[in-house]
Amino acid sequence: MFLAYPGLVATLALTVLFTVLANERIQLPTASHVQALRSTEGMVSLASILFAIWAVALLPWPLHPAPLLPWVDHPIALWALIEASFLAPALLGVLTNSPFATRANLREVQMGVAGRCVVWIAIGSALWLPIDWSIASLPGRGLLWLAGLLALPAAIGYGPFGAERNLSPAGAEAGLDGPTSGLLQGARAVRGSALLLTLIVASLAWSPVPPWIVLMLTLAIFVVATLLIRQVSLVLPRLTLPGALHWCWWRAMPVALLGLILRVVI
Question: Where are the alpha helices (H) located in 204-240, listed in sequence order?
């Protein structure tokens, strides 16, 4: 039951919202996409989507239908599922025969891992540290949220952290047919939305406000964060791999570590 709600419902609904607000292009499902699911790339895309849905179902949602089930709101379970969702498609890039796709995938993996290291500090601190919503905890929470938002475009491979298009317009999907490429792009949108949702829900977990307000805040923050990420993609140029790694390790990471120190000390 909890895989359908909040897992499937929240993931698919907010993925559609994310693609609309971020001006992303994904293909609507057709019969050719169903046939493409039989390919290796199609099965990996489906697995990536299912991992993301499972992770969203385990988030500490207000009014969760099964809050006492094992692994609900557990950081290790969330980390394993989200990382599986991101890294499973990366294996295709390593095994592909297209050098352009291999290069794009390796670039995406390196930036994604660097970005998600920062995001996981923000998520893990929200779920693992003692529950504290006092005024003194707000600076640390704010810095951790800011760090997660700074690193999120790199974590999901969006905007200036997206695939290089100068060598191949298809990027990581180089050499694939249209339906298969569409499945991989759809899976990318799903896991990106799931990671943003994980950051938001974890940051608001166990807040001392009514559950319905938390749900409204989750939706509002999701919309604002998506619009901010889109604005970043419009302002910043496409970053090189060293530039992207510098952004994650020397801009977002110090903010996350400072926020973590404040949360632990204060």
Answer: 211-235
Cα separation, 16 vs 102, in Å, equals 28
Report the pLDDT value the prediction gives residue 97, as an integer from 0 to 100: 66
- Distances from the Cα of 12 to the Cα of 17, 62, 130, 147, 254, angstroms: 9, 18, 31, 26, 33
* Structural domain spans, the chain: 3-265
Estimate the crossing angle of helix 75-95 against helix 99-128, to 10 degrees. 180
d(CA 122, CA 120): 5
Q: Mean per-residue pLDDT for 12-39?
A: 77
pLDDT of residue 4: 76
Q: Is the dihedral of CA 36, 163, 124, 62 positive or negative?
A: negative
Q: Is the alpha carbon torsion for 59, 60, 64, 66 positive or negative?
A: positive
- Buried b or exposed e, range 136-157, using 16+ CB within 10 angstroms: ebeebbebbbbbbbbbbbbbbb
CB atoms within 10 A of CB 94: 11
pTM: 0.93
